[in-house]
Automatic annotation (TrEMBL), chain A:
<dbReference type="InterPro" id="IPR001851">
    <property type="entry name" value="ABC_transp_permease"/>
</dbReference>
<feature type="transmembrane region" description="Helical">
    <location>
        <begin position="120"/>
        <end position="137"/>
    </location>
</feature>
<feature type="transmembrane region" description="Helical">
    <location>
        <begin position="6"/>
        <end position="28"/>
    </location>
</feature>
<feature type="transmembrane region" description="Helical">
    <location>
        <begin position="291"/>
        <end position="310"/>
    </location>
</feature>
<keyword id="KW-0472">Membrane</keyword>
<keyword id="KW-1003">Cell membrane</keyword>
<feature type="transmembrane region" description="Helical">
    <location>
        <begin position="158"/>
        <end position="178"/>
    </location>
</feature>
<dbReference type="GO" id="GO:0005886">
    <property type="term" value="C:plasma membrane"/>
</dbReference>
<feature type="transmembrane region" description="Helical">
    <location>
        <begin position="35"/>
        <end position="60"/>
    </location>
</feature>
Automatic annotation (TrEMBL), chain B:
<keyword id="KW-0732">Signal</keyword>
<comment type="similarity">
    <text>Belongs to the bacterial solute-binding protein 2 family.</text>
</comment>
<dbReference type="Pfam" id="PF13407">
    <property type="entry name" value="Peripla_BP_4"/>
</dbReference>
<dbReference type="GO" id="GO:0030313">
    <property type="term" value="C:cell envelope"/>
</dbReference>
<feature type="signal peptide">
    <location>
        <begin position="1"/>
        <end position="21"/>
    </location>
</feature>
<dbReference type="GO" id="GO:0030246">
    <property type="term" value="F:carbohydrate binding"/>
</dbReference>
<feature type="domain" description="Periplasmic binding protein">
    <location>
        <begin position="33"/>
        <end position="293"/>
    </location>
</feature>
<dbReference type="InterPro" id="IPR025997">
    <property type="entry name" value="SBP_2_dom"/>
</dbReference>
<dbReference type="InterPro" id="IPR028082">
    <property type="entry name" value="Peripla_BP_I"/>
</dbReference>
């Protein structure tokens, strides 16, 4: 039991479970399945971008990708425009979204590495360009996804939303890479002490390059899925994922200073972020109180998760 | 679609003749007008900028004004827009048409412009500085009419779900206050739940999906436009009966309405603000420069789409865009004359 409590990810899951229970208790148990299903659907998007952000934050202090919202918008917009609602184009759309992710990752890292810009500045400045490209490419017109793709992204398999299966699969891959592969060890080592890692022979810049590519590709994929899920890309579709992607990493028990990441915690935090808003909405909390409470709860979880880590 | 199809017909007929006669009291062919816009990141704002281009382009070609340049700030910040207006003063524009990031934070810059002899016309996001003109939408009335419509459809009343906009924004407070005033007028309705959809379809979808499980049966959804389709998607996914959702003017929500109507006879109404209001502001600025006496406060009617006008409106709306009305000089003169009559 104490070993379980010592895990930093347990707190986000406990918080999610509590928010779930409080919401469902309002109706005496009715609608529990519905709520869980909605949490898995919407949590999946936050979880996927959150895992990308987690990889970058693990790189160490100062590493963060603020271009995630613009990348999502650009990937969603270009993919849906190329597909043009025609059946059988889903794979091409996916390829375009992933290619946008690769391009963005490449551009971001070029700014960071070649121009020696701090990642916060580089990704924030570049995101203005990506957002402008999205506006310029389609001027905000909303194009419907092909029917098959829309059915897939809003559908379910074995009572679990398809997007949640995608998010789960990505979580497993990220976990295996982080915990079981050399590259994952290199990433952790770089985040814990970049100088020591370099002296120990870790190809630090290659690790950083791959990480910035990974986060952008995951953002591109999320943009594609979210646009298909909600019936088309919108210019402001990525907006709320800027803070969300960072919040799920921190709440999930990864170290904001880098070097320690936590995959299960990201999923727990993603579910929690959806459930806490649903809970406060269900209890009829006004917008101001809702924001204050959300902030307070997040701080509480972060404190709980980080003090546990210090003690063990 | 022309304004004349939905503006009070009587007012238009009464004034059109006299207004046309005094179209160009002073020559404005040397005048330069600038658009100061605080945000471009959604389809409504994109349509607004497109309308501006479509209407001012020919106006410049015809020599009615010398220039009509549009500028948009990147960060939706009042400070940034204030600096932008100060630049416009230095560039020597004769009139500035502004969609403001804040009703009060730009007042200093607007006052500077007025003091420099520049005509300032605010619309949609209006400014409170008295020297500026305001083209406002009666958001309060829009909210009230939503409930009135539901009362006409559901005389016995029931539970409503309210989808609000972006918390802390003036427009959100106004529409919501109007909705609550409507509830007082028709007490058979009760707001069972309220969520913020941030005027974004995917945010609304998420918020509605989260609150639905804890709600009793819902007979109607009152919205602020742009979030109706998201609500419909969330309600469909939850397997509930479709309530009457008051829609906005996006093409995808009206298309959904048409499909539902054809399948099951679904009936509703759409209330919204046409993004082409920017073109009305342009003509009002031109008229002020031409020496017309224009009252400081003008009201622009909101765009209503009913069961009868749905097909026509949808046919005129580009796919993925929003239903729109672009204003002509005559339309602007009619609006001005109506306001003069009220003075």
């Amino acid at each position: 039991m104490s070993a379980l409590i010592a895990r930093p990810w347990i707190w986000s899951w406990l918080a999610a479970a509590l928010a779930f229970a409080l919401t469902v208790s309002l109706t005496g148990g009715r609608g529990a399945g519905e709520l869980a299903y909605a949490a898995l659907s919407f949590g999946a998007f936050a979880a996927i971008v959150g895992m990308g952000q987690m990889l970058v934050i693990t790189l160490g202090p100062g590493n963060v990708d603020l271009s995630i919202p613009a990348t999502m918008t650009l990937a969603g917009t270009l993919a849906l425009k190329a597909m043009g609602s025609d059946p059988g184009t889903a794979a091409m759309g996916l390829a375009i979204a992933l290619a946008v992710g690769l391009g963005v990752g490449l551009a971001n890292f070029a700014l960071i590495y070649l121009l020696r810009l701090p990642p916060i500045i580089a990704t924030l400045a570049a995101s203005l360009i990506y957002q402008s490209l999205a506006i310029w490419s389609n001027r905000g017109l909303r194009i419907k996804p092909p029917e098959g793709l829309a059915d897939f992204s809003t559908g379910r398999t074995l009572a679990v939303p398809n997007v949640a299966w995608v998010g789960l699969a990505i979580a497993v891959v990220v976990w295996v890479v982080l915990e079981r592969s050399t590259w994952g060890r290199w990433l952790m080592a770089t985040g814990q002490n970049m100088r020591a890692a370099r002296l120990a022979g870790v190809p630090v810049q290659r690790v950083r390059f791959a990480t910035y590519l990974a986060v952008a590709v995951l953002a591109g994929l999320t943009g594609y899925l979210l646009a298909s899920f909600s019936g088309g890309a919108a210019l402001n579709m990525g907006q709320e994922y800027l803070l969300m992607s960072i919040a799920v990493v921190v709440i999930g028990g990864s170290s904001i200073a880098g070097g320690y990441s936590n995959v299960p915690g990201v999923w727990g935090a993603a579910l929690f972020m959806f459930l806490v808003v649903s809970m406060l909405n269900s209890y009829g909390a006004p917008a101001g109180l809702r924001l204050v409470l959300t902030g307070t709860i997040i701080i509480g979880i972060v404190i709980a998760a980080s003090t546990r880590r210090v003690r063990t | 679609m022309r304004i004349s199809t939905w503006l009070g017909g009587a007012a238009l007929c009464a004034v059109a003749g006299s207004a046309l006669a005094e179209a160009h009291m002073t020559d404005t062919s040397d005048a330069r007008i600038a658009l100061s816009n605080n945000y471009a990141g959604n389809s409504w704002r994109q349509a607004m900028l497109q309308s501006w281009e479509d209407v001012t382009g020919p106006a410049v070609e015809e020599g009615i004004v010398a220039a009509a340049d549009a500028y948009t700030t990147s960060e939706n910040q009042a400070t940034e827009q204030a600096a932008q207006i100060q630049n416009m003063i230095l560039q020597g524009y004769d009139a500035i048409v502004v969609n403001a990031a804040s009703p009060t934070a730009l007042n200093g810059a607007v006052k500077e412009a007025c003091d420099a002899g520049i005509v300032v016309v605010s619309f949609d996001g209006i400014v409170t500085e008295p020297c500026a003109w305001r083209i406002a939408v009666d958001f309060h009335e829009m909210g009230r009419q939503e409930v009135e419509y539901l009362a006409s459809r559901l005389p016995e009343g029931g539970n409503l779900l309210e989808i609000r906009g972006l918390a802390g924004v003036f427009v959100d407070d106004e529409i919501s206050a109007g909705i609550h005033a409507g509830i007082e007028e028709f007490p058979q309705f009760e707001i069972a739940g309220s969520v913020h959809g941030d005027w974004a379809q995917d945010v609304a979808q998420k918020a509605v999906a989260g609150i639905l499980p804890s709600l009793p049966e819902i007979v109607g959804v009152v919205t602020q436009g742009g979030d109706g389709y998201g609500a419909a998607e969330a309600i469909r996914a939850a397997g509930r009966d479709m309530p009457i959702i008051v829609l906005g003017n996006r093409q995808d929500e009206m298309l959904w309405w048409q499909q539902q109507r054809d399948e099951s006879g679904y009936e509703t109404i759409s209330l919204s603000i046409a993004p082409g209001v920017s073109t009305l502001a342009f003509w009002v600025a031109q008229q002020i420069l031409a020496g017309e006496e224009v009252p400081k406060d003008l009201t622009v009617p909101f765009l209503t789409v009913t069961q009868d006008t749905l097909d026509e409106t949808l046919a005129n709306t580009p796919e993925g865009s929003v239903a729109n009305v672009e204003y002509s000089l005559e339309d602007a003169q009619a609006v001005i004359a109506e306001a003069q009559g009220e003075m």
